[in-house]
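Quick one:
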Amino acid sequence: MEPAEGSWLEWSGGFVYAMSGGSPIHSKLSAAVIVALSARVGSECTVFDSKVDIWVERAEFYGQADVSVVCGPLHVHKVSRNDKTLGEAITNPRILVEVLSPSTEARDRGEKFAAYKQITALEEYVLVSQDERRVEVRRRGPRGWSSDVAEAGQTIRIHGHDILLDAIYGPSAAT
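Output:
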């Protein structure tokens, strides 16, 4: 089944989800995260937009994040049918970013995070709010996952670098 133009498919545990394209604010925030991370992750890392697919074998998950970062060699899973390669999905992102929307927030925080945690290379899962100036970074540590949150006027640490929320959301309006 091919997705309709402007939509994508995600597959998780035998269920297929049709994902619609994002809103202009969703796209703007995704692009701002790509710019902010590209300036900071270093030459050993590559930043990808939402068009790159992600495969999590242990979770039987195939889908996309809004932004993905791979450091070091790129590992891919080839999607084939009848000896024809239909596409490739990355399997070793170090950072995954989701821009939260009302229709996807619960799934991004729950089911998708549960799948993404199965990626052994994943170190940070970043959640960017559309409704408020708020970024949450879930970080894998020796004792499991922890969470840091930054709000308007603050900085958030991603991949060892402090990023001012204004770099993602734009300058805040004077009050």
